[in-house]
Structure formats: structure tokens, C-alpha cells
Amino acid sequence: MRRRTLLAGALLSAAASPVLAAGPARAADPGPSVTRKATTQLDATAVFFVSYDGLVNNNSFQKNGLLTYKGYQYAAWYTSTRNAVVARRVLGGTTWSTVTLTHQLKTSDSHNVISMGVSRTDGRLHLNMDSHSDGFFYVKSAAGLLDNPATTSWTSSVFGAVQTTLDGLALTTQFTYPQFVATPEGRLQLSYRAGISGNGRNALAEYDGSTWTNLGEWSASTGTYTSEHGSSTARNMYLHGIDYGVDGRLHSFFTWREQNSAVMCSGGGITNHDTGYVYSTDRGRTWRNNAGTVVGTTGSSDTVAVTDAGLVVDALNPDHSLMNQESQATDSAGLPHAIISYVPGRFGQCTTGYVADRTANGRAFHLRKNSSGSWQKTEIPVVLGSSQRTKLVLDKYDNAYAIFPFGRIAGASKASGYTDWTVLFDGSGLNAFGEVVIDELRVKADNTLSFMYQEKSSGTTPSALRVVDFALPA
User: Fold this and answer.
1) How many CB atoms are closer than 10 A to CB 391?
2) How do the residues of the chain divide into helix, strand and coil, expressed in percent and rounded to 5?
3) Which of 36, 28, 31, 29 is nearest to 6 (CA)?
4) Residues 206-220 as b or e (16 or more Cβ within 10 Å = b)
């Protein structure tokens, strides 16, 4: 059945691709496919507890819990002793080398993830970990550690002391959601939220190879939002991601979460509403709406607010359990794509319990900006079966892949206009708990879809943490 599905997708891609008018015929780009290569074990007994419906070792908003750089892959997690661990392997290798850090997870909260980043200017690995609206913990490696991995030792001696600042730079006492992103020049930026759920602001810090600088906050928590049910005067902007495109633009999709539940039809729902989009052409110093108008300046009193015009690219009221922090990517033309998910109106206009309603009736949608500048949205015909998030990956042909909870994979071809979504892998044999952590950089490095997942367990019984690799179209 799977071979027939993939063949049908390949034939559709071929039929939709143009043939050159003169000269030799050009072969059509292949459609989406995944071929399972190997699974490796990171930890037989990783820490396991369910919190906010998720796991601390596999949360969608980690950027990055798994990453590839210069022929090696790196992973970070908490083991059964609650110690932070960082590991590496040569790409394609079956054995991971591990270093156990001195830091131990302070509380059983799935928000308190470990995120990694690479500063290309000095070859350091950076880790930010263990925070949820409080202080963070930060570790960086020795300079050059990642530049020549085959000849550098992988021991605790190459990692510095655990800090509660960025080399002396204190950011906020209410810190959450660290996400590292490298600028086109190789500087390393750290995106984070200052404040709390329903009353927080997004902010950026930047490392130039020697010093961290706090660029400041760029989104606002103030202003009035009014739905048909009521109003709210505080909120936070939840990012679906933050990524540089090939043209150097910094892209971010988001949804707003209101503090006041009066905006909902039912207290059992979730106050997230609308999918918005902003971008920056100056490395995050100023932010523009979809029309290109500047709507916020980082570190100033004029930041991106719910009352700004031109932010919403897909409107939705708070009654459909829209998920926050789903996923985004940019294609080879620099165009932004996102995955969003919610309970469509055909299942009713008021969700009364967001976990149960999303599990029963939630659907994911592929939202993208096309070459003409308009936005298109396609429902992915896969039942979520979970309240959790789906990840998005684009291959080198700009085919799209949605990696659902439990490690299920669906794909759609660029040639079809992303209308031919088909299940490519049903998650069989993984026994994955829920969300997975994608290695975004490996897709570009060696055309492999690689993700980290944790096996199901019960209570607080530790379980195996693994990485599975799939070959994408060559």
C-alpha cells in the first residue's frame, strides 16, 4: 500500500511539472518520500514525567534539542538522575559519546527543556536550560570545540561552569522558551520570553563571538483585544518559531494568548487566537507586518502589539483551541511556511475541553505564502489523535513534511501546490509518547530527516530516548 501511495505521489508530481519547450527534457523533481535508515539509542533510562501534556526531553518549542554541525550530530536531554547530558556522534554512526553536566533538573515541569545553539564565529556549543518564568541555566563549551570534532576530546573538561547569566549578562527573572538561531553572518541569537503566560514579551539577545548583548523586547503584552464574548487587556505572543531565510530575512509566525478567559465561549478552552506573521530585514532590530510596514522596534517602547494592523494572516477566534508554538520553516525561495492546528468549525463553534476536543477533532493545517504574495492554507487529512504539536520540514525540493505526535509523517509535493498530503510513515515500531524534536540543520546537511523521541512510560518510570533517521528524496 505504501509503495502504491508513493508511486501515485511521484506520478502526480511528474504530471504537474513543466517540460522545457526546447532542448533535452528535464526530469521532474521527486515528490515527498521517507525511507527509514536507522534508529539509535541515546539513553535507556531518560527522565519521564508528563507535565502540561508533554515531556521535558521532547517539547516542540526546543530549538534545538538535536542539531547537526560539520559532520556531527549533537543531542541534549535529562537522564534518570535528572542530570543534563549532552552527546555527539558522527553522522551515520551508531554510537553516541556522552558528557554528563553538573546541572540537575530542578523541577518536574516539561517547559524546562534544554536548547542548544552553535556560534559559528568561535565554534562553541551553547546550552540554555531548566526555566519556566524564572531563572535559566547556561553552559558554553570551549572555543573551537565544534570546528574539528574528529580531533577534539568530548569530556566534561571542554564545557565551562554552569551559569545563571549569559557570561554576566542578566536578562530577566521571568525567563522561558530559549531558542537559539544563527544569523547569516554566524552570530548567535537567543530568543526568549520575559514574563508569564498571558502577560509576557518576546525578546532577543545576541552573541558576537566574544560578548553577549541584550537587544531587548520586541513584542508587547498591552492593548485591548475584544472577542464576541468579552475583552482582555494582557497577553503574550507565542512564537511558532524564529528562522532566517535564504535572503537574510528573519521570519516568525505566532499566535496571541489572552490572559482573561472572558474572551472564550467556555472556560475549558484555550485563549489562543489568530495566526500572525512578522519579519525583520535587519537581524531582529525592527519588525514588519505582512505588507512590509514597520510595526515594532526591538528594545524600544514601540513593540509589536495586538492592536497593530496587518499582523493576522489567518484569523481565528479563541473558541477553537488553536495551539501555540507549533512549527515553521522557509523554503528555497525564502517564502515562509507554517503548521497550525485547531478544531475546525465543522466540529462545532465552541471547544469546551481543549485536550479532549483537540484529541478527538483537531486537525493540522499547512499555511504558506506563495510567490504572488498571497496566503494559502491546506488542511492535512490526518486526525491528530493528540492535543500536542506537529513539526514542519521542507526538503531540498521544497516538498513539505508534517511530523505528527507519535512520530507519524505525512508529506505533500511542491508540484501539487501542497494539495496531495499523504501519510508516508505511520509511526509503527517507535512507541513514541507524543511530540518529537526535529534536527532542522541535518535536513540541509545530508538530506536526512532525523528526530528525537521518547518511548511511552507510566508515572515517573524512566524510558528509552532515541533518534530515528529517514532518508529524504535524493
Assistant:
1) 24
2) 10, 40, 50
3) 31
4) bbeeeebebbbbbbb
Q: Which of 353, 396, 184 is nearest to 284 (CA)?
A: 184
Q: Is 335 in contact with 370 (CB distance < 8 Å)? A: yes
Retrieve residue 426's grid coordinates: 505511520
DSSP letters, 210-248, are: S-EEEEEE-B---S-EE-SS-EES-EEEEES--EE-TTS
The CB-side HSE value for 176 (13 A sphere, CA atoms) comes to 24
Place of cell 570545540: 145
Residue keyed to cell 532518508: 471
Tally of CA atoms within 13 A in the half-sphere of 9 that contains its CB: 28
CA 474, CA 460: separation in Å to the nearest integer? Answer: 41
Instruction: Report the Cα 136 to chain-centroid distance in Å.
Output: 20
Q: What residues does 377 pair with on adjacent strands? A: 367
Instruction: Identify whether the C-beta of residue 474 lies closer than 8 Å to the C-beta of residue 467.
Output: no
* C-alpha cell of residue 115: 536548547
% of the chain exceeding 90 in pLDDT: 94
Distance, CA of 323 to CA of 238 (rounded, Å): 10
Distance CA 316, CA 333 (A): 28
Q: Are 172 and 190 in contact (CB under 8 A)?
A: no
Measure the CA–CA gap between 412 and 235, rounded to whole angstroms: 35
Q: Alpha-carbon distance 132 to 81, whole Å?
A: 20
Alpha-carbon distance of 258 to 272, in angstroms, equals 7
Task: Choose among 394, 386, 434, 407: nearest CA to 39.
Answer: 407
How would you classify residue 83: left for phi > 0, otherwise alpha for psi between -120 and 50, otherwise beta? beta
Number of Cβ atoms within 10 Å of the Cβ of 312: 18
| Model confidence pLDDT, tens digit, residues 231-286 | 999 999 999 999 999 999 999 999 999 999 999 999 999 999 999 999 999 999 99
Tell me the C-alpha distance between 143 and 121, whole Å. Answer: 9
Q: What CATH fold (topology level) applies to the domain 34-471? A: Methylamine Dehydrogenase; Chain H (2.130.10)
| Cα 45 to Cα 78: distance, rounded to the nearest angstrom | 10
CA 113 from chain centre, in angstroms, equals 13
Say what the pTM is.
Answer: 0.93
Please report, for residues 86, 251, 259, 340, the alpha-carbon distance to residue 274 in angstroms, rounded to integers and kept in the order given: 37, 17, 15, 10
* Segment 121-131, tens digit of pLDDT: 999 999 999 99
Residue with cell 516568525: 252
- How many residues does the structure list for the chain? 474
- 104-142 as b/e, with b when 16 or more CB fall inside 10 Å? ebeeebbbbbbbbbbbbbbbbbbbbbbbbbbbbbbbbbb
